[in-house]
Every structure is written in C-alpha cells, then in structure tokens.
Amino acid sequence: MRRADFHYELPPELIAQAPLAQRSASRLLCLDGATGAVADRQFTDLPQLLRPVDLLVFNDTRVVAARLFGSKPSGGRVEIFLERAVAPRRAWVQLRASKPIRPGLSIATAGGELHVVQRVAGDAGDLWEIETPGEPLAFFDVHGSVPLPPYIGRSADADDRARYQSIFARDPGAVAAPTASLHFDAALVARLDALGVRRAELTLHVGAGTFQPLRVDDVARHVMHAERYAVPQALVDAVAATRAAGGRVVAVGTTVARALESAAAQGTLAAGSGDTRLFITPGYAFRVVDALITNFHLPESTLLMLVAAFAGLEPVLAAYRHAVRERYRFFSYGDAMWVTPAAGARA
Fold first, then answer.
1. What's the pLDDT band for 219 if we cut at 50, 70, 90?
2. What is the mean predicted confidence (pLDDT) over 239-247?
3. Do the domain assignments include residue 167?
4. Alpha helices per DSSP H over 198-269
5. CB–CB of 79/223 below 8 Å?
6. Pair (40, 109) in one structural domain
7. Which one-letter DSSP state was computed for residue 151?
8. Do the bridges between strand 249-252 and strand 291-295 make them parallel or antiparallel, or are there none, so unpaired?
9. β-strands 249-252, 55-59 pairing
10. Are 141 and 111 in contact (CB under 8 A)?
C-alpha cells in the first residue's frame, strides 16, 4: 500500500485547539466496519453501545511536562524535549538550537544545569543523552510544560496540565496523551460501572515518534517507532473472564490496541513488558481487540492505518469524509469514534 492511500482532506478549522468545557461532551461517530454504516451520536451514549459483560481497557500512562527551555553559556536558546528517562539522572531528549549541539555542553534551565553527554540514535530523529540535576521525570514535571501536539497552534496553559491528561493517568512516562481516554469523566465512568461494564488497565508510554510522518511512500518500508508497554496479569485474567462470559474486549485508544496486540504476538495474550515496534496496517488479523474507541487521526498517519486495518480502509475514509461534512472536531482535543471490526479483521 502507498502512503497516499491513507490521505483525506481536512479543513484546518476542524482541528480542535482546546478541549470542551466537559470531557464527555464530545460527539461520537459510530462506524460499523462490517457494513460501513455510520451514525452520529454523543459520547455520553457510550453506555448504550456496551453490554455488562464487555471489558473496557484503558492506558494508565501519565503525560510528563516534557517541553523545557534553556540557554547555552553563549546565551543561545535551546528547546529540550524529553523522549525517555533511561537512568536515575539520565534521559534521552531532542535538542533544538540555532547552532550545532556538542557533547559536554551545559544548558542552564530554571531547575538547574543539564549536561549533554552523547548523541544517541532515536526513532524520532537524532537524540541526545543528558544528565539532569535530579530524577528526569520528576525534574521535567516540575520545570517543564505540557507538550501539546504540533497541530495545536498555541502554547500550553495551566488548564492543559489537567485536560491533556486522562482521569486514569497514574504511571508517568508519556510525552503525548492517549487521547481516546480524555473523553471519560467520573460521571460517565459511574454510569458504566452501574451497568456492569468491566474495566482494566495497561501501560503504553506514548513517545514523540507518534507525531512523526511517514517518510517513505511504500507503507511496508516504514519502520515503526518503539514505545514501552506493560500488560499485567490482572488484565490477562480479565480478558479471559470476558471471553468466557461472551463479552467484548474494547480498546480505549490505538495505544491500548497496539499494546494488547503486541502482548499477543505469539498467538495468545500474555502478561509482560518491553518495547514494541508493532506496525498494524490493513491485512493484520487482530487477536484481542473486538471494538475500538478512538479519536480522529492525521492523514497518512500510522494511527489512521491501524484504524483502517480494523474497520477497512474504504469504510474508514468514508467515515472521515462524513465527519468533515458534519463538522466534527479532529485530533487530540477533538471528537471520538466507536469502531467495530470489518469482516476478516479478527483472527
């Protein structure tokens, strides 16, 4: 398949620049992958789409305030973007400056000096290993700012600290939010609990590579960025119980879908952790996921390709065209989709 196969036209004014006042106030476009039928609903209608034996799986990753600014001894400005903490006082970061960065450089920040150690190869381009004054995640959380995606054309403010974070966020390490879960608030969760819908959690720390465009035209040649994930035994047990009861495993977001399918790469879902480079494109047979809740994704993106693998490329692109006509809000702070699989998408 070619990258252009996943293109669609999106008016820029449909890219949501801020969250709605209430998390669950977003719209919900329902796509039946088997028939291609679409329906316009509200996210608060979700309990009507679920059954008591169904299992919702959430990503409990917490977004770190990964963007930080500093200055060189010369006074030159440096932007520091956290990619990953790798040791008690070491981290991998992207560094952007007007002049080349060199090992040994000291960068002054509001929280103290950072020391550039060495260049390392990374999925999102060249990375640098730095030494931080304290534990990296805690250091950035105190002194950094929320790393809003590049398509949001404003600086992060105090409200983003809370709203670019799901109510399930516990384990710090992501540099971007698992946005499908941003639509859930306490009132909606209480309704789902009263219905008897089950919940479970896993962790996938979203990396900066999630925003990197494909740089090759042949989709099969793209190398997926690595992201850390952990699937606990409690989730494996919950999936088994759901299957035994005749329920569906509903992935809340593409990050959850990718982690579940990575943990089932050997054929059966198993507890474990590690880095995943799983690239899900049309033709992939899903082993775990029965339904998907997701936001709208960028044209030609790996996330859109995952959704197309689940519900079929043409039904997904038709649903996106419908969403554009109906003026849905797109991307991280936008509206959501409820997606069921196309025939043959499940293993």
1. very high
2. 98
3. yes
4. 233-244, 254-263
5. no
6. no
7. T
8. parallel
9. parallel
10. no
pLDDT(210) > 90: no
Does the pLDDT of residue 222 top 90, yes or no? yes
Contact present, 22 and 329 (Cβ < 8 Å): no
CATH no. for residue 136?
A: 2.40.10
pLDDT at 326: 98
Assign residue 207 the CATH number of its domain. Answer: 3.40.1780.10
181 and 79 share a domain?
A: no
Burial class from Cβ neighbours inside 10 Å (0-12, 13-18, 19+) for residue 158 reads exposed
Residue 286 DSSP symbol: B
Q: Which of 10, 5, 13 is nearest to 298 (CA)?
A: 10
**Bridge partners for 272 per DSSP:** 231
Q: What is the largest CA-CA distance in the chain?
A: 65
Q: Taking Cα atoms as reference points, which of 319, 305, 315, 322 lies closest to residue 343?
A: 315
Beta-strand relationship, 61-63 and 336-340: unpaired
Task: Copy the structure tokens of residue 24.
Answer: 């669950």
- For the ranges 121-125, 139-143, 174-178, 337-341, which has the lowest average pLDDT? 121-125
Same domain, 37 and 136: no
Q: Which domain range does residue 331 map to?
A: 3-63+161-340
* DSSP E strand boundaries for 43-126: 55-59, 61-63, 67-71, 77-87, 90-97, 106-109, 112-120
Predicted confidence (pLDDT) per residue in 3-13, tens digit: 999 999 999 99
Residue with tokens 């998390």: 23
Tokens coding 71: 């200055």
Q: Is the dihedral of CA 288, 169, 273, 236 positive or negative?
A: negative
Closest CA to 289 of 272, 311, 316: 311
Listed range (18-22, 175-179, 212-216, 227-231) with the worst mean pLDDT: 212-216
Q: DSSP code of 214? A: P
Decide if pLDDT at 91 tops 80: yes
Q: Are 110 and 47 part of one and the same domain?
A: no
